[in-house]
């Protein structure tokens, strides 16, 4: 109880740098969450902060950040793609590509989809003959 009282009096600002009010809003956005214990809020904030630090440090050390003395988005997306621990972030940190390349990919997906639909229709017609 003493630690909870200390956090409530404002010392949590020194223990965690992420805004607790924002984290509370994010946690409450989940339909399964009805109430949030102050300790759970603090621990979630601290764990998130440590995770972000780990991701940044790993990406800096294993990316090109050391050469430029900077952490770049490319370093982060490379980590998400290459490191098994961080692969769950691949959708959130996609590799940057040019818009023209993306449009070509969309066009190819559309053509492939149309080809698949044509094949599916052909299979259905064969089934009807049997």
From TrEMBL:
Entry GO MF terms: DNA binding; nucleotidyltransferase activity; protein heterodimerization activity
Cell compartments where the protein resides: Nucleus
Alphabetical keyword list: Acetylation, Coiled coil, DNA-binding, Nucleotidyltransferase, Nucleus, Phosphoprotein, Transferase
Highest taxon listed in the record's lineage: Eukaryota
Region (Disordered): 109-130
UniProt entry tagged with the keyword Zinc: no
Stretches with biased composition (Acidic residues): 117-130
Classification via InterPro entries: CBFA_NFYB_domain, Histone-fold, Transcr_DNA_Rep_Reg
BP GO terms, sorted: chromatin remodeling; DNA-templated DNA replication
CDD domains registered for this protein in UniProt: HFD_CHRAC1-like
One annotated Gene Ontology cellular component of this protein: CHRAC
Transcription factor CBF/NF-Y/archaeal histone domain location: 17-78
SUBUNIT field: Heterodimer with POLE3; binds to DNA. Component of the CHRAC ISWI chromatin remodeling complex at least composed of SMARCA5/SNF2H, BAZ1A/ACF1, CHRAC1 and POLE3; the complex preferentially binds DNA through the CHRAC1-POLE3 heterodimer and possesses ATP-dependent nucleosome-remodeling activity. Within the complex, the heterodimer with POLE3 interacts with SMARCA5/SNF2H; the interaction is direct and enhances nucleosome sliding activity by the SMARCA5/SNF2H and BAZ1A/ACF1 interaction. Within the complex, the heterodimer with POLE3 interacts with BAZ1A/ACF1; the interactions are direct.
Stated role: Forms a complex with DNA polymerase epsilon subunit POLE3 and binds naked DNA, which is then incorporated into chromatin, aided by the nucleosome remodeling activity of ISWI/SNF2H and ACF1. Does not enhance nucleosome sliding activity of the ACF-5 ISWI chromatin remodeling complex.
UniProt-recorded name of the protein: Chromatin accessibility complex protein 1
Lineage, highest ranks first: Eukaryota, Metazoa, Chordata, Craniata, Vertebrata
Gene: Chrac1
């Amino acid at each position: 109880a003493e630690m909870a009282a200390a956090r409530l009096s404002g010392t949590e600002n020194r223990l965690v740098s992420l805004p607790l009010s924002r984290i509370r809003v994010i946690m409450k956005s989940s339909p399964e969450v009805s109430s949030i214990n102050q300790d759970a809020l603090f621990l979630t904030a601290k764990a998130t902060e440590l995770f972000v630090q780990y991701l940044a440090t790993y990406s800096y050390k294993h990316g090109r950040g050391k050469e430029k003395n900077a952490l770049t988005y490319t370093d982060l997306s490379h980590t998400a793609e290459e490191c098994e621990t961080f692969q769950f972030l691949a959708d959130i940190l996609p590799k940057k590509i040019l818009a023209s390349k993306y449009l070509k990919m969309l066009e190819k997906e559309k053509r492939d989809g149309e080809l698949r639909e044509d094949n599916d229709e052909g299979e259905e017609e064969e089934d009807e003959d049997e």
